[in-house]
Amino acid sequence: MIPEPVFSPQTHDWKVALSESFRQIEDLLKYCELDVNRPESGSEAGFPVRVTKYYASLIEKGNPQDPLLLQVMPDKREHHHIQGYSLDAVGDIKAMPVPGLIHKYPNRVLLTLTAACPIHCRYCFRRHFPYSEAKLDISNCSPVINYLNRHSEISEVILSGGDPLMLSDQKISTLITQLNKIPHIQYLRFHTRLLSVLPERVNETFISILEQFNGKVVFITHINHPNEISEFNQRVFNLLSQHGFQLLNQSVLLKAINDKKSILSELSYKLFDNHIIPYYLHSLDKVRGAAHFDLTVDQQCKIYTELRNSLPGYLVPKLVNEISGQLSKTPVQCS
Ligand SMILES: *Cc1c(COP(=O)(O)O)cnc(C)c1O
Ligand code: SF4
């Protein structure tokens, strides 16, 4: 049994909450009441530990196998170099016509406005991304805005990162002002983990800025396990949904974390009860240092088939791969 979270927000200022994040393995282990000399712990392998207090509060004390802990705790297997697990697993660097803008799919582009994340997920495919080359200027006539203006086939701008909700309200507001001047941009999408990691971020000011956008706003949350939904972010999902923003979720299928039908099916229902539709279940991107989270295609298909057989169709996320050079995510072929 997972105990009720003891988290109680000390402050409503999200930047203060962010600054109180754990950044040392020892501090996190102590907080989780675990041995600071665990033999399986690894060093940070160039990707430092970062966990918000809120997310850490959802980790079960004294449980070294807690599924939330395993997503953020460095493991010595990260140092293994395994063939087929590379530094640019999804071919993003090739698909960047101007710095910070990835145009892989015809009518939508992805902007990496910030490298910062509120949490460092050990399996992340962006852990090796050369973000310093992806700094973004979104002022009038900047390369990104010019590109969007020139490409009338683009109807959707996706903010990714890093995590786009790490940007200040001011920066998001500036971007929305620019996008409103481009008539063919009708959808603004946020790919964010913040809603389930730093729920303090969503406040009235933020919502009033989003309401300035002329088109439709979509959030794709990133939630892998039902324990990542608590009474604190339930409030946030309710608020966003009440304001008419569409909520979808993407998860990554991760060994020892959510590789069971029962967990994924509970997740789908819990998402739905919070106005979120399960969208994608990503097969792990083959990124160096993350192989210990991977499952074979047969294992993935077995879980997925069981999941399909236990849920209404609208609660089954699409099991997909990101394949470099393809014009969409590619469904995993399960016979
Ligand atoms: C995943 C992704 C998208 C969005 O794809 P959807 O199928 O629309 O969710 C867009 N651009 C890039 C580069 C992506 O990796
Ligand atoms: S980009 Fe997403 S998956 Fe990667 S570390 Fe940041 S929050 Fe985690």
Comma- or semicolon-separated keywords:
binds pyridoxal-5'-phosphate, single chain, 10 helices, TIM Barrel, 335 residues, 9-stranded mixed β-sheet, alpha/beta, disordered N terminus, binds iron/sulfur cluster, 9 strands
Structural notes for this entry:
The chain contains 10 helices and 9 strands. The chain folds into 2 domains: 14-79, no CATH class; 93-331, Aldolase class I (TIM Barrel, Alpha-Beta Barrel), CATH 3.20.20.70. It has 335 residues and is of the alpha/beta class. The chain has helices at residues 14-19, 25-31, 53-57, 69-72, 143-150, 169-180, 204-210, 231-242, 261-273, 297-308, and strands at 101-105, 108-112, 156-160, 187-192, 216-222, 246-252, 277-282, 318-321, 330-331. Helix 9 (261-273) packs across helix 10 (297-308). Helices cover 26% and strands 14% of the residues. A 9-stranded mixed beta sheet has the order 1-2-3-4-5-6-7-8-9, covered by helices on one side. Pyridoxal-5'-phosphate (PLP) binds at residues 102, 104-105, 108, 110, 158, 322, 328-329.
